[in-house]
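To: structure subgroup
Subject: Chain for Friday's discussion

All,

I'm putting the inputs and outputs inline so they're searchable in the archive.
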Amino acid sequence: DDSGKKTDDEAVKGAEPAKSSAEASPSPSASKAGAERPKIELPADLKYNFEWPKTGDKKKDAVMADAEQRIKAVDLAISHQDPEDPAYRFYS
């Protein structure tokens, strides 16, 4: 038979049907929203002036605050010459 259909005996091992979304792996339970953020202590001569206004939306303002911290964390890792700096790793 050349119909292209495989019988159960001819099925390819490991080619089982995909799991439904209900059976899929759960998403990570902990998010960074609840995580303890690392303290970033920069050299005294390094100053920032972030001028974006608060939006009044807690989630958006939290994202903007994390963006500020990420910028600082990158500079902290550079000043320490440490690509494994905990603050840099947290925000990257």
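Points worth raising on Friday:
Residues 20-31 have pLDDT under 50 and may be disordered.
Residues 59-92 form one domain.

D.
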